[in-house]
Amino acid sequence: MKKIIGKILVNGVDLLFDGTTRNGRTSPLAICPVCGLSRRTTHSFYIQLRHGNTTGQCHKCAGLTQSTLRKGKPKLVTDEKLKTGSIIHWGERTTLSRVPVTCGLCHEKRVVTFLRNPDWTGYCRNHGPSGKGHHKWKGGRTTADGYVYIHISTLNKEDAILATPMLTRACYVLEHRLVMARRIGRPLLKDEIVHHLNGIKSENTDSNLEIVSASSHPTENKATTDRLRDEIDRLQNLLKSNRIAY
Fold it and tell me: Is residue 240 part of a domain?
């Protein structure tokens, strides 16, 4: 195993490898995710943490939590307030990984699966960093299931007004719906489906799009599929008649 030096995060627990060994194996310092206490651990603790076989808590916090869970008594772990204003209610959790958290912005309380992360804010999904501030930001244009999505922060003022009622929870709008909204001059209704005439979901030119109802959309999809199948058969016959290998 490659020797580790420095501080790393393993399954939500901070480990500090300072070169100390015990019986010839690394002995890192671990920081309890509940009380923040640091203590010397063993190499086997590091292995168990990597495989998710331990919570990484110190003996005191683990003993209090497990004993109170087992006996059904009030939890003896105090709440923790983050720098963002969010509150982790350690004393109200019912399992070791599911803990109630109050958002520091809207003050809404919900239960989350907690993993200790230095950048974790405790905010609700709708209030978390988005756009260029998100760690997975790739320029505001992405694809999923063949469709193209555009982030609202990359749009001009007029397009942003059209896109706002059609946004997903992550502040993205489907490009083909935005193109159609520009054509008709208003946001699309939920029951207005934008159909791709050539069947290519990422080709969002104005001439390739038309509005259909939800009830007629399957029929339009079948017609497009049949048309494409006929075109493929025609091209295959053309290649075969000219003895062109493909």
Answer: no
Nearest to residue 111, comparing CAs of 128, 132, 94?
94
- Whether residue 119 is found in the same domain as residue 138: no
How far apart CA 220 and CA 199 sit, in angstroms, is 10
Alpha helices in the chain (DSSP H): 43-50, 59-71, 157-163, 175-184, 217-241
Look up residue 198 and give its DSSP letter.
Answer: T
Instruction: Report residue 81 as tokens.
Output: 């307030």
Give the pTM: 0.45
Structure tokens of 9?
A: 């995060």
Share of the chain above pLDDT 70, in %: 81
Q: What range defines the domain where residue 157 resides?
A: 131-191+198-207
Backbone angles phi, psi at 158, to 5 degrees: -65, -45
pLDDT tens track for 174-196: 999 999 999 999 999 888 889 88
